[in-house]
Amino acid sequence: MNITKQQSGLELFVAVEGSIDSTSAPELNDQICDSLTSINSLVFDFSKVNYISSAGLRVLLSARKALGDKGGVIIRHPNSNVLDVFTMSGFDNILKIEQ
Question: Could you give the domains of the chain?
Fold first, then answer.
């Protein structure tokens, strides 16, 4: 998994490439965790994510909870497989998903 971060004001943009699973999810969590107190919204580019497991979903849910009523978590450009996981798990009702 490759992660690229860029902060612009109160938004953190995170581009993820590869699979987010039990092996790589802790790395993603570490990459975003320190920034959550200084941002209002977290925007993920998932255009190059080919798989997300429940461990990855937990990272997203933790980030959403940490941001509270601020701007929240936005997932951009998930492929159909990842979108299916969000839909089946109900995460499409928790996170903002932009095609």
Answer: 20-98 (3.30.750.24)
